[in-house]
Amino acid sequence: MPFWINMIVAIVAFGISALTGIFLIPLLKKIHFGQTIYEKGPAWHKDKQGTPIMGGFMFIIGSAIAAAVGYALYRWHIMRIGYVPDMTQLYKLLAGFGFAILNAGIGFIDDYIKAVKKQNLGLRPKQKLIMQFIFSAAFLYVLYLLGDTYTDIYFPVIGYVDFGIFYYPIMVLYLIFLTNAVNLTDGIDGLCGSVTIVAGLSFVMLCAAMGEWEYSIFSMALAGGCLGFLIWNLHPAKVFMGDTGSMFLGGSVCAIGFAMHQHIILAIVAIVYIIEALSVVIQVTYFKITKGKRLFKMSPIHHHFEMCGFSEYKIVICFSAAALIAGVAANLIYNFT
Question: How many CA atoms lie within 13 A of 40 on its CB side?
């Protein structure tokens, strides 16, 4: 696939996402869909009280349109040179996007409850987990129907390990964990969007190397959409992506990794998200074991760095740099193993 298609995808996603903010942000303010700041968060976050949420619709719309444009161009290109498009790959792309949208739906319900009740509770964890379990199992089933019947996982150096029937329950838990990990990364202005831009570009290279052209287009659309969103979300943020946006990004990241059937490579690319989630697990576990002591000043870990004096810009730059190193490592590992 020629690179110019991905460039057009990035430009379209960026433009639509950025321009959507001109209309969406005033609308969200008008209907009073603003953020209620959690009382136990950093004190300086109270200045963000009332900032509109659900800004994730900006990159959801932008990436969806851009991916459609990119796929149309890709299909035109391959038919022009005499190739017949593989419809299974299109169905796999639609399955991944559908999984992302379903997760965005969970986030939207959560955001709506927060906005209406003016509190940060949203959906109960049990309610969210039940929906995520159903959607994750359905996604894996659709991939199975589309030909991904393999139950093995490739480990660099070790090779393929077949998990048999245990593959599916493990992968459901993996999907739920990683989707929520991306959600947890959305805690300061510009962080989740910036890290996802880097992850998206890493996936573009990986998908191209694996011949997953449709998902290469989707990955570029995701990166471009997030870049357009950052115009409005960098500190001081004029809008937050909300759970609507972060759950969509989580679903998208998972969908791309599973489309490649590269679970360990996915974990490497997503290492920043994973560290964010593990910091919460470690904090809670340590708190219970020590009966009230804390290992971090606050979790997820980006808040720990905030309370250590790091500015939001510095955290975004450092975490994005870590994501870039992880993305380069993932590409090197794939290409040399």
Answer: 6
**Angstrom distance (rounded) from CA 164 to CA 172:** 14
Could you give phi then psi for residue 51, rounded to 5 degrees? -65, 130
Please tell me the distance from the alpha carbon of residue 9 to that of residue 150, in angstroms, as a whole number. Answer: 31
3-state secondary structure of 98: helix
Instruction: Using DSSP bridges, classify how beta strands 159-162 and 152-155 pair: parallel, antiparallel or unpaired.
Output: antiparallel
Neighbours of 124 (CB within 10 A): 11
With residue 288 as reference, give the H or E element that holds it. helix 271-289
Backbone angles phi, psi at 161, to 5 degrees: -125, 120
End-to-end CA distance of the chain: 24
Type of residue at 199: A
Task: State how far the Cα of 138 lies from the Cα of 116, in Å rounded to an integer.
Answer: 30
Alpha helices of the chain — where are they, by DSSP H? 3-30, 57-80, 87-117, 125-145, 167-185, 191-210, 213-233, 242-260, 263-269, 271-289, 301-307, 312-335
Determine the longest span between alpha carbons in the chain, in angstroms. Answer: 68
The separation between CA 292 and the C-alpha centre of its own chain, rounded to angstroms, equals 32
Mean pLDDT, the chain, integer: 92
User: DSSP letters of 203-253?
Assistant: HHHHHHHHT-HHHHHHHHHHHHHHHHHHHHHSSSPS---HHHHHHHHHHHH
Q: What is the dihedral of CA 58, 64, 69, 75, to 10 degrees?
A: 160
For position 120, what pLDDT does the model report?
61
C-alpha 38/C-alpha 299 separation (Å) is: 13
pTM value? 0.95
Tokens of 318: 């450092």
Structure tokens at 269: 């690319």
Say if residues 89 and 232 touch (Cβ distance below 8 Å): no
pLDDT digits (tens, 9 = 90+) for 31-78: 867 666 554 556 656 667 778 989 999 999 999 999 999 999 999 999
d(Cα 296, Cα 279) in Å, to the nearest integer? Answer: 8
Give 186's pLDDT tier (boundaries 50, 70, 90): very high
Q: Does pLDDT of 135 surpass 60?
A: yes
